[in-house]
Write a structure and sequence with these properties.
Elements (H helix, E strand, L loop, with lengths): L1 E4 L4 E4 L6 H7 L8 E4 L11 E4 L1 H13 L4 H20 L5 H21 L16 H11 L1 H4 L1 H4 L8 H4 L1
Parallel strand pairs: 3-4
Antiparallel strand pairs: 1-2
């Protein structure tokens, strides 16, 4: 099932495939020019729209790292993202540059703390990507796509999560 949703409209379609084949057959995502909020699935990155990552997905992954793996940086990251979301909601508008800079500085410090306890596994010498731990993959996504993680704080039209589409 594929869903695009706004506060006013919802489009739902079913297709037997995922990814580019379904995108092309359903003919809506390839022409979408807004900001697509998603879970970071790789085929979405091929679309020419802007991207925002769903922070509800991040909070779930961070909760696992914090509660199950007992990594304190993840708990502090949860607090940081929730505080930023609350501040955006309270303001009703994007955060001022200095607030974004403050949040992003603390974000980068937490990523570094996460890296310290989750070093990348060295290349194995075999073909393909070397398998990494769940926390290392999460940290890599949070760093590589940090602008998409924080899009909710810079663009008033971008929500913190894609929960609207999942509901």
């Amino acid at each position: 099932m594929h869903v695009l949703a706004t506060g006013m409209l919802t489009w739902v379609a079913c297709h037997t495939k995922r990814g580019r084949q379904a995108f092309d057959a359903l003919a809506i995502l390839p022409g979408f020019l807004g900001t697509l909020i998603h879970d970071g699935w790789k085929p979405y990155r091929e679309l020419l729209c802007k991207h925002g990552l769903c922070n509800a997905h991040h909070l779930r992954e961070l909760t696992y790292v914090f509660e199950e793996l007992k990594q304190a940086w993840a708990g502090r990251m949860i607090d940081l993202l929730v505080a930023a979301c609350h501040e955006v909601n309270t303001l009703g508008s994007p955060l001022p540059r200095e607030r974004i800079a403050d949040f992003r500085s603390r974000y980068n410090e937490l990523l570094a703390a996460g890296d310290a306890v989750n070093p990348l596994t060295p290349k194995s010498g075999k073909r393909g990507r070397t398998r990494q731990s769940k926390p290392a993959n999460l940290l890599l996504r949070l760093r590589t796509y940090s602008d998409d993680v924080w899009r909710f704080a810079t663009d008033h039209n971008v929500p913190f999560t894609n929960n609207l589409a999942e509901q």
